[in-house]
Amino acid sequence: MIDPGRLNRRLTLLAPVETDDGQGGVVRSYGAQAVLWASVVPLAAREGVAADTDRAALRARITLRAGVTLSRAHRLADGDTVYRIIAWRSRERGALLEIDAETELT
């Protein structure tokens, strides 16, 4: 049995939406697909530089109920914080999904 108190945050699952850019390519944006209850546990952060700007990548472990179809192109949003999905695995006999995710802080 899953302890419902563990899943204490509401995250929005964002699905990729691609539109034609008029020059033979596509523009990718994200649209809300579902709202899910989850647990978010922050992990270690790492520093880096991108486009001459100091950035920190914060990693997190996100746990949610199984039954959600994911790809690495999906994102999870918690208010203004958007998590990029790195990997996921099944836990507790397939009842939960445990997701490794990363968000950038500037």
From TrEMBL:
Top-rank taxon? Bacteria
Q: Which Pfam families match?
A: Phage_HCP
| Name of protein | Head-tail adaptor
Task: Name the source organism.
Answer: Rhodopseudomonas thermotolerans
What lineage does the source organism belong to?
Answer: Bacteria, Pseudomonadati, Pseudomonadota, Alphaproteobacteria, Hyphomicrobiales
